[in-house]
Amino acid sequence: MTKVAILLGSDSDLEVMRSAAEILDEFVIGYEINVLSAHRTPDQTVEYLKAANDKGIKVIIAGAGGAAHLAGVCAAHFPGPVIGVPISSKSLKGLDSLLSTVQMPPGVPVATVGIDAAKNAGLLALKVLAITDTDLSHKLKEYLVKQTQKVLEKNEKLNELGYEKYLNEK
Ligand code: RP5
Asked: Which residues does the record give as substrate binding sites (predicted)?
């Protein structure tokens, strides 16, 4: 079942946004990916957003760069949670995208992750879905335990080898 919609302002955002898809794949959560621009395909974007909730979409992840209005448009038309991913831009390195995505007016929230942080957007979507999905909540807890273990192992190795050897082996 498709529960998450991943939207991209352009196909040039796909290389960054694939990390959101990959983490959803890891947890076997259904999603669809579409290129829908707030500026270049405004009518199609609104049409998609108005139908999304009835189709069973629970969360939207929207990535866009530059004058990044896609996540904001999603939040204006979709009743569920919207997670915005500011994509790094050539001219301003994503600061433009970040500010365009995060500075929403009161009443129309977008949960904005860091610049190019599509993996975190995917994880946040999973956490939203896990509120009503015990099995997913369990899997997420296991994922976090493994993440902690990996860091502890790295720290142990660093202390064993010393920083120079550690870096050489990296
Ligand atoms: C934004 O403009 C897109 O989200 C993309 O990040 C940026 C550049 O788009 P392209 O010119 O590469 O299609 O709308």
From this structure: 10, 13, 40
* Same domain as 127, residue 53: yes
Mutation pick for ligand 1 pocket among 6, 10, 41 (CB with most ligand atoms within 8 Å)? 10
Ligand 1 near 72 CB (within 6 A): no
* 145 and 110 fall within a common domain: no
Judge whether residue 170 has pLDDT over 90: no
Domain shared by 121 and 138, yes or no: no
Q: Same domain, yes or no, for 123 and 143? A: no
SS3 33: strand
CA of 37 to the centre of ligand 1 (A): 8
DSSP 43: H
**Is residue 102 classed exposed, middle or buried when 0-12, 13-18 and 19+ CB atoms within 10 A define those classes?**
middle
Q: Which of 6, 11, 12, 39 to mutate to test the pocket of ligand 1 (most atoms within 8 A of CB)?
A: 12
Where on the phi/psi map is residue 112: left (φ > 0), alpha (ψ -120 to 50), or beta? beta
Position 157 scores a pLDDT of 98
Structural domain of residue 140, as residue ranges? 134-170
Are 16 and 100 found together in one domain? yes
